[in-house]
């Protein structure tokens, strides 16, 4: 081989080796880029799948709500409102009792009359009761009937006739449209022993009292 051809051969081998080195480096760079792209695509795909799963769970999964305690201020306000209602009820009850006591105290003169003029015994009480019943049923003179029934009650408050007389006074007041007085005497009659609640519920004389709070309370559990 001549030096010229030898030189050409060496140059060719060198060029071939150089070309081979350049190809390997290029291939290496391309593969690195491919791996990086695949890794990025895989990461993006996994992230997307995660988002889809979260969305589906949000639509179909059971919603769990964490119970929250009412603000402390609300509880305090409710407690105060409850206490205020209780105080209002107590105030209303006291006002009712005071008014009742005032109405009954107006009978002081009638009580004195009963003590002085009777009835003093059962026979007198029965006679007065019959007269009062006639004034009530026949004459519809409720005012005079009530006075006689009261006199019997004031002298015999713990007897059966006293209890019935108080009941009849209540009926007279109810028929006269004096509801509070009627309820006063209805309560007194029950306190004295009147217990015919079936008759009380059906007695048309008391129809004007059916919607009254005191009437309903009187019949509670009876």
Number of strands: 0
Distance between the termini: 140 Å
The pLDDT mean sits at: 81
Tell me what portion of residues adopts beta-strand conformation: under 5%
Oligomeric nature of the chains: single chain
Q: What structural class results from the helix and strand content?
A: mainly alpha
Which outline best applies? rod-shaped
> What is the alpha-carbon Rg in Å?
52 Å
Query: What is the count of helical runs?
Result: 9
| Largest sheet features | none
Helical proportion, percent range: over 70%
Query: pLDDT under 50 segments (min length 5)?
Result: 1-19
The arrangement of helices and strands along the chain is: HHHHHHHHH
Question: If you had to describe this structure to a student in words, what would you say it looks like?
Answer:
There is one protein chain. This protein has 222 residues and is mainly α. Helix content is 78%, strand content 0%. It contains nine helices and no strands. α4 runs antiparallel to α5 (142-155). The protein is rod-shaped.
Please render the helix and strand layout as text.
Layout: H1 3-60, H2 72-105, H3 108-117, H4 122-137, H5 142-155, H6 160-175, H7 179-191, H8 197-202, H9 213-218
Key terms:
single chain; mainly alpha
Quick description:
It is built from nine helices and no strands. By secondary structure, the protein is an all-alpha fold.
């Amino acid at each position: 081989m001549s030096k010229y051809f030898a030189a050409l051969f060496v140059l060719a081998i060198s060029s071939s080796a150089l070309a081979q080195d350049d190809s390997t480096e290029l291939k290496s760079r391309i593969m690195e880029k491919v791996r990086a792209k695949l890794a990025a695509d895989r990461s993006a795909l996994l992230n997307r799948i995660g988002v889809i799963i979260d969305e589906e769970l949000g639509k179909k999964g059971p919603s769990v709500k964490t119970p929250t305690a009412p603000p402390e201020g609300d509880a305090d306000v409710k407690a105060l409102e409850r206490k205020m209602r209780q105080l209002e009820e107590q105030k209303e009850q006291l006002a009712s009792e005071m008014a009742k006591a005032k109405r009954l105290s107006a009978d002081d003169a009638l009580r004195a009359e009963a003590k002085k003029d009777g009835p003093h015994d059962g026979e007198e009480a029965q006679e007065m009761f019959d007269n009062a019943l006639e004034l009530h049923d026949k004459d519809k003179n409720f005012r005079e009937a009530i006075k006689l029934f009261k006199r019997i009650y004031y002298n015999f408050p713990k007897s059966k006739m006293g209890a019935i007389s108080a009941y009849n006074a209540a009926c007279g007041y109810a028929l006269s449209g004096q509801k509070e007085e009627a309820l006063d005497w209805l309560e007194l009659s029950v306190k004295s022993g009147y217990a015919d609640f079936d008759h009380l519920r059906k007695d048309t004389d008391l129809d004007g009292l059916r919607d009254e709070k005191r009437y309903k309370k009187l019949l509670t559990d009876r």
